[in-house]
Every structure is written in C-alpha cells, then in structure tokens.
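Hi Prof. W.,

I finally got the Sigma-54 dependent transcriptional regulator prediction working! I wasn't sure whether to trim anything, so I left the full sequence exactly as given:
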Amino acid sequence: MGKHDSILLVEDSDSLAAVYQAYLAEESATLTRVASGEAAIRAMNENPPSVLLLDLKLPDMSGLDVLQWLNGQRFDPVVIMITAHGSIDVAVDAMRLGAIDFLEKPFDGARLQVTVRNAMKLSRLQNLVEGYEAASSRSSFQGFIGGSLPMQQVYKMIEAVAPSKATVFITGESGTGKEVCAEAIHQQGPRANKPFVALNCGAIPKELMESEIFGHVKGAFTGAQRERRGAASLADGGTLFLDEIGEMDMDLQTKLLRFVQTGRFQRVGGSAEEAVDVRFLCATNRDPWQEVQAGRFREDLYYRLYVVPIHLPPLRDRGQDVLAVAQVLLNQYAKDEGKKFRRFSPDVKLVLTRYRWPGNVRELQNVIRNICVLNDAEQVAVDHLPQNLINQLDELLPERETRNDSDLEFELVDPSELLDPSDVNEALLSSPLQALWLTEKQAIEHAIEHCDGNIPKAAELLEVSPSTIYRKKQSWEQTTAD
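And this is what came out:
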C-alpha cells in the first residue's frame, strides 16, 4: 500500500473494531475508526479515505444511508460493506449503490486483508484513470448523462475514434443510447458541419430498405412516381448511421458490402453508378458475432464493419447514473408539462436504483414522463410511480430492519389510538350493504386520514404492506378517471 492510502472503519462495536484493527495492523495504510454514521460523514468531509469499511447496522442510521449520502459527494472511496448473517439481500442493494464488495460476519483476518488489499488496488487504478482524464470525471458528454466509470470509458472511446474515418460498430441493449453515441462521434469529428443521416434497419420493411439506402429512379417499382435520393446520397461528405443493422436482409447485405468497400452504388432501377464520401457507423442490440455464426449476418460484412467496437453498458450497470439521468429528465418533463416536480423521495430513489431497467434509458424516460403527465407535486412519491413499478414494490422496497425509521416518517402506533373493533362492527351492521371493494376503499381511506396521510403508518394499523395500499389507490384513481 502506498504512503497516502487511508482506511476509514465505521463500526459501533468496540470489541469488533479492535479485532479488525488488529487484523489490519501490518498494513501500511492509515486506519481511522469511527462508531456512527454521523461521525463517518464528518470524517470523510475532513479527510476522504481511499477505502471505506462500512458496517450495515449503525446506532444512528443505516450504512445504506451513509452510502446514499456518499453518492452525492465529489470524492469516491472504494466501499466494502460489513453485514451480519441474513442481510445479504441488503448488501447486494448496497453494491448496486456503489459498494464493490461485502464481508459477512464472522470473517477471519485473511479474508479482511485480501478484500482490503484488492480495494486499495482498485482505488489506485481509479486514481490512475482520473489522472488521464482532463480534470475530473465528466457528469455529461455530447448528449449522454452520467459520470460512472463505464460511461467515462465510453466518452474516452468516442473522443479517440471521432477524428478517424474508421467504421465504428456500436453494440448495446435497446434503449442504451446507440444513436446518441453515433451522433456524438459525428459531432466530435471533422465532419460535424456535414450531414448526419440515421436509418433504423429494423423499422423499415425489407422491400423498401434498398430504396431507403440507395434511392430509386422514377418507375423503378410500383409507386415510384419520381426519382428519390437515398440516405447514401444525403450523407455525402458526412456520416451514415445504420441502426439495428442485424435486421438487414441478406441480399441487401451483399450490396451494402460493395458500397462500404468502394463508396459506389446504384439507385434501385438505375444503371448509373454514384460515388459518395461517407463515414459508416452501425449499431445492433444483438451480439454481431453470434449473428454471423447463426447465418443471419455476412461474415465478410462483419469484418468490414467491425473495425472499432464500442459497447454501451446497460443502465443497471451504471450505478448512480440512473438517479442523475432521472433528475435531468424530471427537470425537463416537469417544465414541459408545467408541473412543480423538483426531486425524488428517498423511497423512489431506492426503487429507481434497485429496478433492473430492461428498457434502459428509454424506459426511464417513459417512466418519468408518465409521472409528470399524471401527477403534480414538488417531490415524486411512491404512489406516483407507474403501475408496473407499483406491482413490484414488495420486491423493490422490502421491509428493511437496517433502514432509519425517520426516512419513512414511521411511528409506532399507540394502542389507545386504534379503532375499537366493536365500534367498527356496529357501524358495519347499521350501514346498508355495499360492494366489498367500496367497503375496503372506505376503510383504507379512513385509516390514511386517521394517520394524517402517513401511508406506511396506515398500513401498519391495517396489518397490510404499504405497497398493497399504493396499488389499490392507483387502481381506484384509474377507475375514477375511466
């Protein structure tokens, strides 16, 4: 370890802290120990450590709360969570929030030493990467939002390849921003003031695709009333981006190969050749080599196009970028819709970071737009979320013993405040019969009103989970709207 390496141990048990300090006594790093979350935050503000050994259960707050705070800071220590048996699910959540590893109690000295040494190596590597960057990690770049390490690598690749004329093959799941990447390459390069033409090969019928790329002459086919320029002509001097190129018909792939090799093509129905100067960028959400092996993509075209690959990471692998992207989208859509939204509640932030986002940034855009169109408040709450996320609340927001109760504004229910069952029975017997769902709705609304709008407290009183109330409220609101 280097002479500037430092470790901050956050452990409230004096005996355990002494054991851990003994395990690390031979390491040549400065070790500081604090016993609470508040003390850890003070210590990191004064002297940011290289490695943070963070216990999950602290006397004043959860280790997750410290980690949440840390994600908003400029410094970025390597975090190792310490958990008790049975808290592994929460530890995994912590890793999604930025922790790189976890230690499950009890563990021996060798396990701690190896984990800390690996963390120190990672810390030095991160510092090395930062040293090669201009000043500090960029939080945005050419249409992208996010400062995570995977995105920093993407930004560097774009800057490196942009001045070249080499073909770039962009891969990544749907919704990761492949067209944004292509436009960034174009804008960073010498062709920035020339046309950027994008074609989605998966959205155009295959019988029209050749005409879309190469154009056609008048009378080339039924409906060809006049001559038409294709994308190849329109992109002359600039960049031609072929998105979802794996969807292209095999026969057209042969013609595209010749065009890529020679820069020459013929319009559909024409005999004259045209020559253009274009830079080729292409993208797919599939594994291109697997497509070659499956016989759906020409191998010679693959080698011609797969010159410089850039892979865009899925949103679930970008750590806190999801919150940064969500905040920018919230600001934008709230302004567009004339709404008051400014921030997300702690629960919503946890939902956003725990959800897997199969549709990536595009899905996140739809979620935030849905929230802004259908609701209005200064803070996005759980019951503002779309139905598909509400349906997963039990998984995304399980009951967490390590969570600070104040985050939920939760209070223990005084038994004297509970409704008298005899009063409830008398009220029900004296009331006319009505639909069961309406009785349930009235009971839930009465409980929420009784708890001054505190849904978690109302759920505790009714002995149901908060997610059940959120789902039912949303279904009632939709029924009323219909």
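The longest helix spans residues 109-132. Does that look reasonable to you?

Thanks,
D.
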